[in-house]
Amino acid sequence: xxxxxxPAAAQGxxxxxxPHIATALVPESLTPAAGQRTTLALSMTPQPGWHxxxxxxxxxxxxxxxxxxxxxxxxxxxxxxxxxxxxxxxxLMNHVYxxxxxxxxPFDVPAGLAKGTLLPISAKLDYLVCNPSICVPESATVSAxxxxxxxxxxxxxxxxxxxxxxxLPRPLGSPVAFEAKGGQFRLAxxxxxxxxxxxxxxxxxxxxxxxxxxxxxxxxxxxxxVIETKAGPSAPKSFDGVLALGDGSGLSxxxxxxxxxxxxxPLGSEAPxxxxxxxxxxxxxxxxxxxxxxxxxxxxxMPCVFxxxxxxxxxxxxxxxxxxxxxxxxxAYTAGIILVCVAxxxxxxALRAxxxxxxxxxxxxxxxxxxxxxxxxxxxxxxxxxxFELGTVSAGSGLAGKGGVAGAFWTGALAAFVATPCTGPFxxxxxxxxxxxxxxxxxxxxxxxGLGLALPFLLLGFVPxxxxxxxxxxxxxxxxxxxxxxxxFLTALGLCWVLGNQTAANGVVLAIGAAMLLTLGLWITGxxxxxxKAAAWAxxxxxxxxxxxxxALLPRGGARAEAQATAISQPFDEAKLASLRAEGKPVFxxxxxxxxxxxxxxxxxxxxxxxxxDAFRAAGVVTMVGDWTDGDAKIGKFLExxxxxxxxxxxxxxPGKSEPEELPQILTPGLLAGLTRR
Length: 678
Known about the structure:
This protein is of the alpha+beta class and 678 residues long. Helices cover 41% and strands 22% of the residues. It has 17 helices and 24 strands. The strands form five sheets. Strands 11, 12, 13, 14, 15, 16, 17, 18 and 19 form a nine-stranded mixed beta sheet that branches. Mean pLDDT is 78; it is low at 1-16, 269-278, 391-403 and 557-567.
């Protein structure tokens, strides 16, 4: 034991010619940007016959401990572990890595550092390495020196990080229930029958919840995977785990106490997996696709989409009876929407595969994106108001026709980018399902959302009978065009409000100043256009470049304060929610964001109405608010557990009920007050 107590003494033991795990610190970027996050990898390569340990090592062993030495203001987060393997020795279960692996560590670079500033990083690693006959505690120091730069990834490390991230368990976006009683631990994991399992294993992150060496029984109850094993010595209030699927991949989840169905068909007793899995995936994808198309179609009537769709309405009216032009614009508009929806969906899937908790509409959680949209909507508004002209406005020549198609494409792209935060009926459930489908099927669902959003104008473009109901082109169009400037300016005003909640007053002042500068450039461009001057667009181009440069001056990190408890509501806290439910308190929980217009409409017309609050107060209802404006990871994880990838989400926790009731996305005071009378 004295010999095992020190790495130096361990060298004299059999097999002690260490180190038995080669270690290295690999940065994803050698030039991380100031104020941004990058990733560091602790690369671990065991010698043949030796193994390292997972974060919960099992019946023996201990996990790696890293002691960091970092520049002032820098921060290294908790490491993300890849899916481990199992090793049973003398009846003891070990959760181990017998092949090369890496722990991925988020690293936050301090803000305000000048480019070229050196960032020396080192970590002292203490870990246990074992073979079937001996265990040796080892230590190693790894280091790297970074330089503040543009944040670009190191090309030589890109492929390695892709493989390391592929080995991480993916977050499971569905609620998981567990129960521990009578010495048995049972778990119900929502998992479509289409997901093939080959020798799965449950790894418990929560220490002591299960007997690690006990047999694990897996069975199917429809689309639920029921896991049964022997309970451990502790009785957890929640359970974190990783389900290894048997092919090197895995799913991470947090389970809450709840009802677990009886064991179903034992795993492996069902029909041949390949055909059934393919059919199950296809059915699930088709259902989600239908929901996405219907949700996108309904999205057309949401108030947050109208200002952008009005641009397309004006374009169709201008095209008149030109069949070829109308159809080309309809196809271009549809292509713009679908490509943006697929791109946003693909980015979400990539970020989630990297272990990041993001959901639909994540783009409006970044104040830099908000500022760009303010500039864009302001420019569109002033164009509609007649301050300047776009080269695609006139019609008649072949070149203008080509410009019309380009304009339709970018109108569709803008519509999709701005409209997607407005999660509507059917859309939320469909996108929640998409996040657990295979990548190809998930992208098909995102494309279906875009198709639904574009469907009305696509039908108008290809069904002349519908288009005949549109008013004929005429002088009214100029007046209508000026009127359409109003909702665009209102959109810009709403975006300023969102930016103010993210960055406080300084960000709003900066955005208004940038918009004024851009407007000045556009005004001078308009004067030069009317005078047929050469290079008329030069003033606007210069103003746009300077305005975009203001992005670098936006306050970083957000000035948004934590939501404070009030007489009628308190900020979302999962532990507090569990405590209130244990006390038998009725709870109304809703999730919102400043960029979600439908959320704000529900708040003003239903939640904050006097009759609702009076009824809640009389019944002792506690209202909890989850604000997702800035993309809180805890809220994102909670939304995933309820099959949601966006807001709004409204939940009613009645006393004595084990599961909450999900309320409609369109609320009324009568509906909310009626909850207290059940």
